[in-house]
Amino acid sequence: MTKMPPQYVSTTNACKLCKPLGASLAFRGVEGAVPFLHGSQGCATYMRRYIISHFNEPIDIASSSLGEKNAVYGGGANLKLGLKNVTEKYHPALIGIATTCLTETIGDDVKRLLFEYRQEFMQDGGPLLVQVSTPSYSGTHMEGFHAAVRALVEQLTKESAPNGTVNILPGFLSAADLRSLKEIACDCGLIATVLPDFSETLDGPALRDYPLIPEGGTKIKDIQAMSGAKATVEFGYTLPDQLSGGVHLEKTYKVPLHRLGMPVGIRETDRFFEVLSELSGKPVPEKYSMARGRLVDSLVDGHKYVFGKRAVVYGEEDLVIGLTSFLAEIGVQPVLCASGGTSGSFVKAIENAVTGFPVEMPRVHEGMDFHEIGELAAELKPDFFLGHSKGYPLARDLNIPLIRMGFPIHDRVGGQRLLHIGYHGAQQLFDLIANAMIMAKQDGSDVGYSYM
Ligand code: SF4
Prior knowledge:
Blueprint: H1 19-28, E1 33-38, H2 41-55, E2 62-63, H3 68-73, H4 76-90, E3 94-99, H5 101-106, H6 110-121, E4 128-132, H7 141-156, E5 166-169, H8 175-187, E6 192-194, H9 220-224, E7 231-235, H10 245-253, E8 257-260, H11 266-280, H12 286-306, E9 310-314, H13 317-329, E10 333-338, H14 346-354, E11 363-365, H15 370-380, E12 384-387, H16 392-398, E13 402-404, H17 422-443
Parallel strand pairs: 1-2, 1-3, 3-4, 5-6, 5-7, 7-8, 9-10, 9-12, 10-11, 12-13
Helix pairs in contact: 1-7, 4-6, 7-10, 12-17, 13-14
The site of iron/sulfur cluster has 8 residues, from helix 2.
């Protein structure tokens, strides 16, 4: 008898988040901006909950608050009323409007609605309105993030005279990464426009009063002048051209584009510094060559703890590629690289990431969910998991450490302060991994070791 194929394919805990969530994060990285969801309250509440639990900071995400009636008759009236309320309450410089599954399904023409809104309510001025289409059923939070960055560049940047700056489009990094990126550019003698920059808006100091819009973020006038930059540096090997702000700046304003991987690990960080050196015309500052030297020394000291270990890495495609490259550098065998993203470039990028290092090509899967990751992990017998908090139940089942990286991290504090990039970031990653391996050995030993 022929075996019946499965009657359906289900997803169990997808290894990705919602598309407008990514857009909201990107909009939060612009000075004076309020993210606005054209959708139901529930969507905004879910996103706020996710973002707050990772960053431990409040985030206001406004919503057009659609109900059942709007699903039938359209959400135009609510969108306009919502924009009016947000303008009056927050006095924002910019409102970043992202659509949701509901408004994309009912087919609201947001562009036309915003045209009408401008005619009706903005004759005497008002905030800039930037709009992005982010139906979550067709992509990941990273695609929403990139789409929002692209929309900001497309809708705000104007023709500008050469200004000697450098655009950096870093993708979704931690707040600590963004601070480090700005410091690196400054130390290299470059004036950089980093877009987006939520290093302060989502990781600011304690304040006596809650500001409706927190200080910080990429200045709007700097985004408008990105066309005058001498180059754009954009991170992301899996970023498609249609979602790339760098490609738009190159095609529209002829700003040369340097597409790099996330500078995670020595090889990718070296590439990043080479480009910065080329753009500044200066050698790498001593502070960074010293950090690189210390990092190499620590790898020599600690290789015995990590060499030959096996890891499952999952999360956003470009972060997984960076982490895989770093693992290969330190002699860890990545056995599974998984992502919920479906860029089509993931496998090739992982192949490039491990080329030149003494490790085998790992299993690589796009569009994976945590059920499948769990099944494969049980078979592949890793020594540790590397990824965000959603892999915790799987690591716990296998009784192996989960080393938390990426987003979301909501069962530890400090996710926003994790440094992934540059030589300093690689140093922190190495120490984390080596110490996790030492701890696992101590915990699994009957004798216990005080010296390892
Ligand atoms: S309904 Fe769609 S847009 Fe709303 S939270 Fe869910 S996945 Fe995101």
